Amino acid sequence: MLTGEYDYSCTAEHSAATAALIPGARFAMMPGIGHFPFAENPPLFARHLLPVLDELRG
Questions:
Q1: Sign of the alpha-carbon torsion through 27, 35, 41, 56
Q2: What was the pLDDT predicted at 58?
Q3: What are the tens digits of pLDDT across the range 27-53?
Q4: SS3 readout for the chain
Q5: What sign has the CA pseudo-torsion 7, 8, 10, 12?
Q6: Is 38 exposed, middle or buried (0-12, 13-18, 19+ CB in 10 A)?
């Protein structure tokens, strides 16, 4: 789960707690991003998303 640092509708704390309840789930907070990271700051969002996609790809 990737959650923006200042996402007030789905806080990082809520996402972390949810991820803790899901076997195998992982959580990462994205500093400097809010609720719509892909629209707010696409390059910064890509820096968080691409490593996760690479890992999933194996």
A1: positive
A2: 85
A3: 999 999 999 999 999 999 999 999 999
A4: CEEECCCCCCCHHHHHHHHHHCCCCCCEEECCCCCCHHHHCHHHHHHHHHHHHHHHHC
A5: positive
A6: exposed
- Structure tokens that stand for 18 in this block: 């949810």
Mean pLDDT score across all residues of the chain: 95
Q: Which two tokens stand for residue 21?
A: 């309840």
CB-based contacts of 39-43 (< 8 A; 24+ apart in sequence)? 40/4
Q: Which structure tokens are listed for 51?
A: 């490593």
Rounded to two decimals, the pTM is 0.84
